[in-house]
Amino acid sequence: MNPMPKLLISIGIVFIIVGILWQVGGRFLSLGRLPGDIVIKKDNFTFYFPLMTSIVLSLILSGIMYLLRFFR
Predict the structure, then answer these.
(1) pLDDT above 90 as % of the chain
(2) I want to staple 36 with a disulfide (CB 3.0 to 4.6 A). Which of 13, 17, 21, 52 is the partner?
(3) Which residues does 52 contact at the CB level (< 8 Å), separation at least 6?
């Protein structure tokens, strides 16, 4: 099998697993509602920008990638 389809299938499986963990873990971890996330509420309009959540996820993913490269 060509390496590109394997990569795309693997990425899809990872996204599914992360989505399921996010749904289940959302009850215990308030990821997405951290202090530093921007929420603007008007009469019939709500704008939500997860700034701090994006920073935390970036740090976690960067650490995982560093560890993967380190142990390779």
Answers:
(1) 25
(2) 52
(3) 34, 35, 36, 37
